[in-house]
């Protein structure tokens, strides 16, 4: 692991990995055979005869990193003692990631580097979730964090952000993998959350500081999320959601995949239902995920996870209406559910008229019993503790 304390020539040597194109498996094999990045680097000339590399890799590794890049990374490292550059084969490089089909040759991080070796679960999903999806993502993340597991996600808006935010108060055990440089907040609305993760958890990226997000970066980001985690849980995903890419990559990396079911009317859950049809585990609680892990993956949790700390079910608001409520209030309350429901549907269910239902809904909103989501209404879930 390289920090600001290391010589510039070490940092420059690591940054040469950014020149690489094409197949990198021969280089990873050579580094592994040498016993790690530092031994490989120190004895590379002597090792070439035994572990020859394709010419294009040799040319890339013989080309010095751009001075401007070396300077910018050095300046970034010096800005915070918790920042680091981690080449493939370094002692701190996470084993799960190293064993995945396509591990990155270089990682840039800021935060608690020890989390790289901590058992974790990925929680991913839609960037435009329903309020129910946000609540479920937070509850799953809380359950995993309470059990001593690290919550891993991609710092995207929606489900990712909800998972990170829920894990932070619980010892900050969360890793956010970025599709841009570790110094760039994307989306910008998550800038404060990003700083909190850097201070209490871990920010991680395979892109150097100053790299702006591009569409092609996010599938690459997803493969790191999926490979770092023991399992991936998809909370809400539409039919063409990027979360489905994460699920596929997790399966390809030999990880378990779980999906949280939703209402058949909820389009945001259509991708989850598809995953379940295709063989993903059905998860209604964090405990379902822990119980459904393969024996090999579950064994990796034995020293960390605390089964009794894992919630067995997602909180539901099944409370009856207060006994002193008027009849029309009770009718409306019984017509509301946990899924957002349009006003027209509530009128049909309750038998109330529009002039009657409007003031009642407003009063319930003000009392904190009901919340609105783009003109649809649902019961507000109990506050999490």
TrEMBL record:
Cited Gene3D superfamilies: 3.40.50.450, Winged helix-like DNA-binding domain superfamily/Winged helix DNA-binding domain (1.10.10.10)
InterPro entries documented for this protein: DprA (IPR003488), DprA_WH (IPR041614), DrpA_SLOG (IPR057666), WH-like_DNA-bd_sf (IPR036388)
SUPFAM superfamilies: MCP/YpsA-like
Positions of the DprA winged helix domain: 319-373
Ranges where the Smf/DprA SLOG domain occurs: 87-291
Domain of life: Bacteria
Transmembrane segments: none
PANTHER family (UniProt xref): PROTEIN SMF (PTHR43022:SF1)
Protein family membership: Belongs to the DprA/Smf family.
Protein name: DNA-processing protein DprA
Species of the source: Lysobacter soyae
Lineage start: Bacteria, Pseudomonadati, Pseudomonadota, Gammaproteobacteria, Lysobacterales
Gene that this sequence comes from: dprA
């Amino acid at each position: 692991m390289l920090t600001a304390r290391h010589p510039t020539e070490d940092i420059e040597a690591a940054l040469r990995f950014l020149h690489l194109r094409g197949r990198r498996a021969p280089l990873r094999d050579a580094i592994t055979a040498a016993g790690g990045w530092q031994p490989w680097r120190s004895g590379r000339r002597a090792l070439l005869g035994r572990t020859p590399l394709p010419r294009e890799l040799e040319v890339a590794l013989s080309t010095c990193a751009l001075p401007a890049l070396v300077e910018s990374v050095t300046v970034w490292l010096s800005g915070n003692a918790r920042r680091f550059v981690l080449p493939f084969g370094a002692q701190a490089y996470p084993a799960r990631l190293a064993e995945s089909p396509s591990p990155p040759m270089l990682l840039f991080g800021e935060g608690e580097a020890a989390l790289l070796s901590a058992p974790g679960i990925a929680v991913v999903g839609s960037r435009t979730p329903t309020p129910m999806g946000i609540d479920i993502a937070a509850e799953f993340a809380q359950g995993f964090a309470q059990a001593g597991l690290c919550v891993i996600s991609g710092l995207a808006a929606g489900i990712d952000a909800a998972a990170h935010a829920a894990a932070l108060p619980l010892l900050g055990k969360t890793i956010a993998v970025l599709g841009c440089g570790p110094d760039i907040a994307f989306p910008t609305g998550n800038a404060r959350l990003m700083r909190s993760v850097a201070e209490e958890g871990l920010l991680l990226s395979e892109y150097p500081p100053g790299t702006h997000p591009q569409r092609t970066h996010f599938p690459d980001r997803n493969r790191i999320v999926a490979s770092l985690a023991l399992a991936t849980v998809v909370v809400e995903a539409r039919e063409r959601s990027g979360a489905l890419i994460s699920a596929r990559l997790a399966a390809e990396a030999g990880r378990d995949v779980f999906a949280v079911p939703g209402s058949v009317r909820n389009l945001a859950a259509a991708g989850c239902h598809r995953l379940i049809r295709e063989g993903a585990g059905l998860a209604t609680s964090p405990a379902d995920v822990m119980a459904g892990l393969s024996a090999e993956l579950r064994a990796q949790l034995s020293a960390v996870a605390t089964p009794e700390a894992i919630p067995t079910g997602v909180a539901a608001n099944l409370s009856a209406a207060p006994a002193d409520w008027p009849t029309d209030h009770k009718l409306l309350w019984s017509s509301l559910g946990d899924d957002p429901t349009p006003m027209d549907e509530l009128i049909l269910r309750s038998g109330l008229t529009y002039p009657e239902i409007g003031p009642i809904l407003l009063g319930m909103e003000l009392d904190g019993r009901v919340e609105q989501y783009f003109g649809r209404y649902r019961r507000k879930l109990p506050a999490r503790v």
